[in-house]
Design a protein that fits this description.
- With 190 residues, the protein is of the alpha+beta class.
- 24% of the residues lie in helices and 25% in strands.
- The strands form two sheets. It has a six-stranded mixed sheet. The protein has a three-stranded antiparallel sheet with strand order 1-3-2, with no helix packed on it.
- The longest helix is centred in the middle third of the chain and has 16 residues, at 107-122.
- It starts with 9 loop residues before the first helix and ends in a 7-residue tail after the last strand.
């Protein structure tokens, strides 16, 4: 979920995450993360990573399952993480929490997507979930490149159809799907 510089309603975020095992929050501010605590957030998700002191560039990962081998992906405008979740009855799953810069960043958008693609390639040896605000639609070159290295859209695998997510803060309903969950061949989606 993109918290839109921490402005997302904490009660609604908590409600939507009620059945989740892992939640990724991008553009999470220290205040927004603190506002989740009264809703039992820390009890529900005892494992977390992210630097809440980093203002709205923060990406936080919350999990019901233990996280290990966590690494911050360096040289990006927003925090992006690679971590490993130990999921009961499934085993080890690599998770990438992503938020590359948007296309208005110019060359930085392309550079951050190239870095993301490299990190995906480096982590294809395990079941892999790459999720977050990609700031790109399926027809963008960077998304096509991720598909060519073996990722597939969980939305497509589940047959969920068109699920636009942007813009989420204006008078119009969302029109473009720029937020994605992608998986490799080791996983499926329902």
């Amino acid at each position: 979920l993109n918290m839109f510089n921490g402005e997302a309603d904490s009660r609604e975020v908590s409600k939507r995450a009620a059945n989740a095992d892992i939640v990724i929050l991008v553009e999470a501010t220290p205040a927004a993360l603190s506002n989740l605590k009264p809703f039992g957030w820390d009890k529900r998700f005892p494992y977390a990573l992210g630097d809440p002191s980093d203002g709205f560039t923060n990406t936080a990962v919350y999990s019901r399952f233990p996280l290990s081998h966590s690494q911050l992906i360096n040289d990006t405008a927003f925090q992006q993480w690679v971590t490993t979740a130990r999921v009961p009855q499934i085993g080890t799953v690599r998770l990438m929490a992503v938020h590359p810069c948007n296309p208005y960043c110019g060359g930085r958008w392309s550079a951050e997507h190239r870095l993301l693609r490299k990190k995906v390639i480096d982590n294809l040896d395990l079941p892999l979930v790459v999720a977050g605000d990609f700031n790109a639609v399926d027809d963008h070159g960077p998304m096509q490149a991720l598909q060519r290295v073996g990722l597939k859209s969980a939305t497509d695998v589940a047959g969920a159809g068109w699920l636009p997510t942007y813009p989420a803060d204006g008078p119009l309903p969302p029109l473009l799907p720029i937020d994605h969950v992608m998986i490799n061949k080791e996983l499926t989606a329902t």
